[in-house]
Amino acid sequence: MQWRKNCYDRIIKDKDVYLILVKRFKLIIKKQDGFINEEQIYVSYNEQYGLWSSDKNENLYEIMRKL
């Protein structure tokens, strides 16, 4: 899916923008009760393609949980 790669390419090198988007998404999750479990955002679709590693990004997930 090309749109996923396009999104990935735009935010992979800009942690601040990524965290802003995550924070906004978490606000949406809270407003849409049952829409998605917040824990689901601490995984990456791109891991199956070798573009992301959950093990290597546990520190990032901790930052995201605090947003």
Helix and strand arrangement:
Elements lengths: L1 H10 L3 H17 L26 H9 L1
Describe this structure in words.
It is a single chain. The chain is mostly helical. The protein contains 3 helices and no strands. The protein has helices spanning 2-11, 15-31, 58-66. The radius of gyration is 12 Å and the shape is globular. The protein starts with a helix and ends with a helix.
Class of secondary structure makeup: mainly alpha
- Could you tell me the radius of gyration in angstroms? 12 Å
Helix content: 40-55%
Strand content: under 5%
Spatial separation of the terminal alpha carbons: 29 Å
What's the SSE pattern?
Answer: HHH
Give the count of helical stretches: 3
In round numbers, the mean pLDDT is 87
Largest sheet features? none
Shape: globular
Low-confidence stretches: none
Tell me the total number of β-strands: 0
Seen as an oligomer or otherwise, the chain set is: single chain
